[in-house]
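Q: Sequence in, structure out?
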Amino acid sequence: MEKNGDNKLIGVPRLRTVFAVVLLFASTVCLSYEGQILFNGNEIYYEVEEADGEFIVIVGDGPGLDSSYMKGIFDHGKSLRYNQLGSGMSQNLSSLDITFQYYISELAALIYSLDIESFHLIGHGFGGAVAVGLALTNPPGLLSLVIVNPRLNYPAIDSALFEARTQESTKELDKFELLFGNSSESESESSIAKNSINMETYNLFWGNDSSFINGKLRGFDLSCGLADIDVPVLVCTGLKSFPGVIHTMTYQVGALESEFVTFIDSGHFPMTEETTAFKLIVEDFHRRVEQTVESNREDEACFDILSETPDERIFGLQDSQRTLDMQVGEDFTVMLPSNPGAGYFWSVESFDEDVLRLISDPFYEEPKEAGSGYDIFGFRVVGSGSSPLIFSFGSSWDVVPIKSCSMLVQVEEHFVEPLIIHASDSGKTFIVGLNEPIEVVLESTVSSSLSWRIVLTSPEIVRQPKESESRVFEDSSGLAKKIEQVYYFEGMNYGEATLEFAYGSPWDDVPPEKIFEATLIVTEPFKEVSIVQDSDNGRAIEIGPHHTLIIKLKKALAIDSGWKISSLDPKFQLIEDPYEAEYLEVSYSVFHLRPTEFGESFLEFYYSEDAAYDQPVGTFKIKIQTNETVDRSRVPLQ
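A: Exactly. Output:
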């Protein structure tokens, strides 16, 4: 019994051990998964090896080389490998003419499709050029760049091939052996590439000549771009690699924040020749980068200049699927992270033009030297109702967008009695609000063929929401005694508009018998705080006597650059000294002003890149109308 009892006691921990091993094996199997993304009609194969830590996106050598030789190298992060189009399981089924720019867009598509928010990037050989190409676009979330025996300067590689052929010891070696082998023992190492490379894709870029580059890579040089990469860079090389350590060291010199490592016992594939050392060095590099990033995040203090300006409304990806409650006359901005350098951008798919207006052409802004940028869209609410606002994100390579962002803009009912202007009001100026209906009513003589016609409008300020019409008034006998021609307008944007009509014959090219002209000033609603920004250049706005005016103008990051006041109108005073601030990674020069008198004022600013010389390189002007009361009656201004 005791023996059986001992066996039972011994068997329990053994059973637990076996169970633990089974669980460990099962978890290991689950830690690796594969898939495909659809890109330009082709399926791009990828594989992820799960582990704790940041994503490590690996770009293999080639082009045409299967990335499987990089499998299992790292265990300190989520390793993402993929096969470029024309290699491994990613075959070109669309007969696409593959270019180097395509490979950059393909890599970006993979990162965007998998919603990778932050990652380290590793490029090997030709993959180093693709990784550098993507890094130069400042992709969102890029933490660091590691390039291993990178092929960046192809004219220099061509020169090295020529020199190698002139040496007695290597004159029998061909280009493929030198590129993928060990410079002293080529046969043993190039077998990695020989067994898994698509030679058709390889020849497309490197060329089919055995002694020099005669494919698409001929003359291509990306090495000069390293100075523009603002994340930490680690350059790795094998001592026995081609074209050698001295050649690869030039890349490290070109990168600003960089480190250099030589693997003594390696050729072109240090990740397989010295796996342990390679893993430890890259892992240590990644760990130090992540510690620095985390430290910077903790120290970062972003001064939100909009905290005191509640009327400014900015939305982004985090607001997708939201309902935005707005009022007529409100402006808002949508900022979406973009990467046009890799060929990816946002575009507006649809919105209701009776509710919303694009108040400027969409533009791209890269707010910091390091980091990604935004596609920026400015809208104005011009009518009541609801409008879906849909954006799509993709590139010229995509058949269907990679992702979308949609919001529902809900605007409360906005009814205003129309402003009616008669012929007796000719020569007058009227103040109206955005989307406020305007009717111009002009009488025509019953007994003649003369009529009114529009000669001039300002379509960027006012629009005609519907066609004009004629009203016929009859007497008791049923005969026409008066005809009124009615023209319908409404304010579409803030500013000044001219309406001009001519009365005469529509068939004869003769001077009109009379002219009607009126001026419409479409003004902003009164607010306690009004924000003026770059897109307001040249505008006229209306404010009240207790109004605070905040002017914030985008500037470069350079310390000496910024906006300054050219001349301060005596009708305004500075509430505090101008200062610089940052919001959503955009730098601004900020001015707080308040009116001291009623009437019309002009404010002008200039931009200088050097405080010592004060040479203006740009100007910003705005006209301000300060009114004594917020009662915006429609009494014409004489």
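Residues 1-30, 183-188, 299-311, 630-638 have pLDDT under 50 and may be disordered.
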